[in-house]
Amino acid sequence: MHKPSLRTAAAAAAALAALTPAAACSSGNSGSGGGAGNAKIAFLMPDIASTRYELYDAPLFKAKVKRLCGGCSVLYQNAGADASKQQQQAGSVLAQGVKAIVIDPVDSAAAASIVRMAQARKVAVIAYDRPIPAAKADYYVSFDNEKIGAMIGQSLVDRLKQEKAKGGILEVNGSPTDAAANLIKKGVHSAVDPSGYELLAEYDTPNWEPAKAQEWVTGQISKFRGRIAGVVAANDGTGGGAIAAFKAAGADVPPVTGNDAELAAAQRIVAGDQYNTISKPIRIVAEAAADVAYRFVKGERPAGKTTLFGTPSELFTPTVVTRDNVGKVLLGPGGALKTADVCTAPYAASCAELGLK
């Protein structure tokens, strides 16, 4: 997958700034005063490598906005992991007269120009899932990413100590251009570094691509053969890539972490291939972001429950999911997944073993 340089993203931002002022001014756009009416709200997501955005985040966000404001519309765009494309999408929605932008940035640094450009037009920017440290968005809604890293890291360490496992840990981080990935990484280190287990090697996965994670882990299996006790992976995609690497090498799969509670990850957990994931009920953040965006559209300035990178924020606490509680957390009442979708024929025996029906 093509990864644009920051220079390319900056050039796109410059072009965008030159093209959009007239359209923005003629729209009569303002983030303050007046009712919501037929307001437009942008929902800009970063990639399709994580299936959650198309399957959950966007539909849930749209549905909540519709419940809050029947006349409002959501302009949804996915950047496909292209920071320059996301800059262009931001310019497009501004030209269409949006009154608020909810953005999960491809590149947290490059997205600062989107924040500044939107705010210059009195359009509120709500950072979603990933923060934008280089510019103060109007609000930030997410799960606590640093805590997520600490939770998956500590869960892995506890498992290894319980098994009296020998060897060290591989760390597969998320994208180096994602500020949320850096928070997860910080949290992982807070658990792994003092654990007594050697950190054999770590890797920042470009664009969170599972194939890149698999390629890197494959090399580490050869380098540290017989010495890898576990793998702490920052999300389910990179965790799945790590598991695929061990299977392709004909090696036993050690405990591997994940994050996002994707369907494929739930199946791997049921089957015993993946050790854990993080349940982040997307409905919580999607609906919270919709509520905050709508309040900005109405001219309000909601106060955050905390502050991160100088931005009023609301950070929710997730849940670690393992084989022990996958049925209760992910498949029980209010769970994100359906038992019928998880327990397909290849996983029927494992589901029966866990009493999942």
Automatic annotation (TrEMBL):
Keyword Ribosomal protein: no
Localisation: Cell envelope
Keyword terms: Signal
InterPro entries: Bact_Solute-Bind_Prot2, Peripla_BP_I, SBP_2_dom
Xref: Pfam families: Peripla_BP_4 (PF13407)
Signal peptide: 1-24
Gene3D superfamilies: 3.40.50.2300
Domain Periplasmic binding protein: 41-300
Keyword match Signal: yes
Main localization of the protein described in the UniProt heading: other
Superkingdom, taxonomy of origin: Bacteria
Protein's name according to its UniProt entry: Substrate-binding domain-containing protein
Native source species: Actinomadura fibrosa
